[in-house]
């Protein structure tokens, strides 16, 4: 497993056990076999859901020091993205991702 994927697995595992996190949607947690059949690894993106919605997301983003709140342009920088307020902001509210969704 590549270094980025191993690091993502460590972060995803830690977040999955954190009381402030409602869900972690990391492909490396797949136990159905789909990942192994379709990919060489889980990648390094760790999507999480915070139950407090936008207010909790905003509070977390404001405290981050190692991640920048930005859209990824395909680089390898450590970023955090809140799709509902960045990439999906112009999308109709009914089609927008949940306010509590973050991508690391």
Structure report:
This protein folds into two domains: 1-44, no CATH class; 50-104, Aspartate Aminotransferase, domain 1, CATH 3.90.1150.10. The protein is globular. The protein is an alpha+beta fold and 104 residues long. The longest helix is centred in the N-terminal third of the chain and has 14 residues, at 3-16. Helices cover 29% and strands 12% of the residues. A three-stranded antiparallel beta sheet has the order 1-2-5, covered by helices on one side. The mean pLDDT is 87. The protein contains three helices and five strands, in the order H-E-H-E-H-E-E-E. It has helices at residues 3-16, 34-38, 53-63, and strands at 23-24, 47-49, 68-69, 79-80, 101-103.
Strand proportion: 5-15%
What is the name of the CATH topology of the largest domain?
A: Aspartate Aminotransferase, domain 1
Return the CATH class of the largest domain. Answer: Alpha Beta
Could you state the order of secondary-structure elements as H and E? HEHEHEEE
> Which shape, going by the Cα principal axes?
globular
Main sheet characteristics: 3 strands, antiparallel
Alpha-beta content class: alpha+beta
Spatial order of the strands forming the largest sheet: 1-2-5
CATH superfamily of the largest domain: Aspartate Aminotransferase, domain 1
Tally the beta strands: 5
Please indicate the count of domains: 2
CATH architecture of the largest domain: Alpha-Beta Complex
Distance between the termini: 19 Å
């Amino acid at each position: 497993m590549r270094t980025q994927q191993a690091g993502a697995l460590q972060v995803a595992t830690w977040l999955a056990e954190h009381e402030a996190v409602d869900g972690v949607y990391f492909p490396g947690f797949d136990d159905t076999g789909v990942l192994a059949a379709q990919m060489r690894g889980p990648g390094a993106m760790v999507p999480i859901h915070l139950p407090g919605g936008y207010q909790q997301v905003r509070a977390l983003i404001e405290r981050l020091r190692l991640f920048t709140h930005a859209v990824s342009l395909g680089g390898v920088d450590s970023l955090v993205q809140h799709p509902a307020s960045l990439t999906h902001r112009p999308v109709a509210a009914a089609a927008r991702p949940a306010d509590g969704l973050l991508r690391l």
